[in-house]
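Worked example 3 (structure in, sequence out).
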């Protein structure tokens, strides 16, 4: 998982063949990036030192849970051994689908929201 701000030329030199762009980079080489943002539903992707990918979705806004700040997301990921991470699209886009069903409570009143980009993982 390559995180941070990079030009196309830099990514090509690193051997990257596929890329997605997100804001905010949360953790680079085990160091959290400071942010002062509010509480919202969040979706994040991270990678541990051994290459394991970690996906995190935090619900919010529906009276069930409040959501999380970016700092709280960083802390959760760091506690799980993540060394590189990015915040993905959050809010009503924060949906986790696993084994044939949505396993979180998206804040969109109509259930999960149609999105342009998804991360799909196969075993």
């Amino acid at each position: 998982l390559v995180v941070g701000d990079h030009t196309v030329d830099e990514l090509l030199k690193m051997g990257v063949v596929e890329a997605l762009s997100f804001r905010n980079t949360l953790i680079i080489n085990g160091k959290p990036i400071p942010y002062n943002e509010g509480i919202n539903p969040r979706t994040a992707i991270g990678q541990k030192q051994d290459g394991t990918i970690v996906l995190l979705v935090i619900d919010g806004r529906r009276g069930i849970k409040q959501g999380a700040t970016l700092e709280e997301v960083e802390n959760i990921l760091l506690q799980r051994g993540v060394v590189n991470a990015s915040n993905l699209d959050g809010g009503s886009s924060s949906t986790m689908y696993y084994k044939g069903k949505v396993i979180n409570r998206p804040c969109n009143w109509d259930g999960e929201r149609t999105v342009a980009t998804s991360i799909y993982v196969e075993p």
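Notes: Residues 22-123 form one domain. The two ends are 18 Å apart (CA to CA).
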